[in-house]
């Protein structure tokens, strides 16, 4: 089944000033359970595309469907609910620096109305899953980059989302740590069944993660399909 579908999506940030198109007629479909890769240079439109999926950006034209629902037509309450089903991780991790690891992961659960006991056991389970058992009381500045991204990932999947959006999730990390995070994202896909859309300017990261990819250039998809076929082309 189709989890995400973009049809004719364009985005112009400053339409009044006649700004360039950040997205220029994107058609894209992501199947439930797959890891879908978006690759392209800086400025190609990858982040913008990702942020149209959880409606952080509203397209200038075109349609974004998540599980068959047009996200452009949602009320504020429906948007909040949508965003709970879509986790997101970032290049710079996006952690609250003054809060403990525990609170970083627990906060979205509190906001979603989880009960205290359920939050405690869920956070413990997540710390275990991402390999940070024992770090609940640490502050982000006491963690390595890879550990911070593990916290970011735990927070993103805390609320049992069906989709995870990863925006340059490994771009601030060294090669070994990148491999560890790649493995963690794969296990999230395989063991938890979460559909992942992964954005990177690093082809080898995409190649290790994604089943299918789209290559973006100047806001348009210039190529898409099976990653290994694309890589094999002259
Ligand atoms: P990528 O993620 O591939 O680096 P982005 O989606 O960040 O690309 O950017 C696509 C284009 O849109 C770029 O030209 C960028 O400068 C522009 N852009 C991105 N975000 C904004 C914004 N908030 N306001 C205005 N222009 C933006
Ligand atoms: P509050 O509603 O005041 O945030 P909590 O019981 O959720 O109360 O948490 C209080 C603090 O205790 C949290 O900030 C967290 O650092 C810590 N804490 C609570 N439960 C755990 C746990 N299972 N593991 C680690 N730290 C915890």
Question: Can you give a write-up of this model?
Answer:
The chain is of the alpha/beta class. Helix content is 37%, strand content 27%. It has eight helices and ten strands. The strands form two sheets. It has a six-stranded mixed beta sheet, with helices on both faces. β9 and β10 form a beta hairpin. α3 packs across α4, α3 packs parallel to α5 and α4 crosses α5. The protein starts with a strand and ends with a helix. The relative contact order is 0.19. The model has no long low-confidence stretch (mean pLDDT 95). Keywords: Amino-acid transport, ATP-binding, Cell membrane, Membrane, Nucleotide-binding, Translocase, Transport. Homodimer. Forms a membrane-associated complex with FtsX. This is D-methionine transport system ATP-binding protein.
| Counted beta strands | 10
What summary fits the major beta sheet? Answer: 6 strands, mixed
Q: How many helix segments? A: 8
Structural class by secondary-structure content: alpha/beta
């Amino acid at each position: 089944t189709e989890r995400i579908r973009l049809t004719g999506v364009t985005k112009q940030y400053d339409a009044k000033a006649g700004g360039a198109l950040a997205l220029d007629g994107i058609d894209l479909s992501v199947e439930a359970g797959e890891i879908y890769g978006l690759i392209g240079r800086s400025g190609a439109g990858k982040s913008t595309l990702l942020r149209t999926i959880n409606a952080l950006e509203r397209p200038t034209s075109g349609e974004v469907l998540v599980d068959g629902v047009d996200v452009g037509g949602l009320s504020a309450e429906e948007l909040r609910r949508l965003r709970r089903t879509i986790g997101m991780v970032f290049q710079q991790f996006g952690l609250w620096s003054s809060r403990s690891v525990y609170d970083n992961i627990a906060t979205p659960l509190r906001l979603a109305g989880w009960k205290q006991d359920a939050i405690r056991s869920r956070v413990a389970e997540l710390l275990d899953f991402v390999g940070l058992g024992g770090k609940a009381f640490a502050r982000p500045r006491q963690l390595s980059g890879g550990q911070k991204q593990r916290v970011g990932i735990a927070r993103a999947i805390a609320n049992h989302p069906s989709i995870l959006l990863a925006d340059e999730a490994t771009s601030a990390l060294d090669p070994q740590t990148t491999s560890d995070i790649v493995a963690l994202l794969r296990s999230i896909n395989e063991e938890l069944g979460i559909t992942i859309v992964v954005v990177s300017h690093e082809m080898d990261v995409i190649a290790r993660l994604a089943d299918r990819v789209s290559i973006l250039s100047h806001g348009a998809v210039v190529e898409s399909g099976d990653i290994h076929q694309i890589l094999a082309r002259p």
